[in-house]
Structure formats: structure tokens, C-alpha cells
Amino acid sequence: MHMGKSGGCASAQAEAVARLVSLALRCGVALPEVVRELRGIRCPSPAWEKGGPVLSCPDAVARVLAVCGGLEASPPVRAEAGACPECGSGVTQQEGCLLCSSCGWSKC
């Protein structure tokens, strides 16, 4: 698992999660157990992907493992690139910020 930038705390944590997941699976921990432990972990900056919130890197890993392991179906794909966490409408990027024209939500 690699993040966009090399180095840094977030990259180190993502690598640690990936190594521990790999170790757990190689040691016989059941996939649903790994998914259950990682799912729902929150970070201060959640993202929206395919119509739903991705709460953190560990939550994203849990989602991928669940879909690839056949534990759940892939979420539906939305037409827009990003969705507002408040109302679900499409967001646009303006002056370095994400803005929702429907409800006024913004993130800079």
C-alpha cells in the first residue's frame, strides 16, 4: 500500500497497516475478523469515494479487503468526481477549496 507522497507519518502508518494485515492473514486470522477490526476507524479528514465516506486509510483497506474477499458487493459508482459529505451533491474545486453549490459546505 502506497500513498501519494513518500515519507511522512501518514505513509509510515499506511505501510504499518498493510504489513500487519498481511501478517494477520498469513497467520490464519480470518478475513472477516481483519475487516471488522479496521472498518470504521476515523481520521480527521475523511474522503468520499464512489458515493460513500472513506473514514481513514485503515477503513479504505477494510473496504477493499471486503470487496475482494467476496464479503460484500462493490459500492455503486457515482457520476461525479466527488460528493458533498453533508448532502451528497457534487462538489467543485475553487481556489484550492472543495465547495458544494447545493448546501454551501466547504473544505479548504
What does this 3D model show about the protein?
With 108 residues, this protein is of the alpha+beta class. 36% of the residues lie in helices and 15% in strands. It contains three helices and five strands. The chain has helices at 8-26, 31-38, 57-68, and strands at 47-49, 52-54, 91-94, 97-100, 106-107. A three-stranded antiparallel β-sheet has the order 3-4-5, with no helix packed on it. The chain has a two-stranded antiparallel sheet with strand order 1-2. The longest helix is centred in the N-terminal third of the chain and has 19 residues, at 8-26. It is elongated. It starts with 7 loop residues before the first helix and ends with a strand.
Short structural summary:
The chain has 108 residues and is α+β, with helices and mostly antiparallel strands. It contains three helices and five strands.
What percentage of amino acids are in beta strands?
5-15%
Between the first and last Cα atoms, what is the distance in angstroms? 27 Å
Any low-confidence stretches, pLDDT <50, length ≥5?
76-81
Q: How many beta strands in the DSSP annotation?
A: 5
- Give the class from helix and strand content and strand pairing: alpha+beta
What pattern of helices and strands is seen along the backbone?
A: HHEEHEEE
> What's the arrangement of strands in the largest beta sheet?
3-4-5
Sheet with the most strands? 3 strands, antiparallel
Using the alpha-carbon principal axes, give the shape: elongated
> Please, what is the average pLDDT?
81
The percent range for helix content is 25-40%
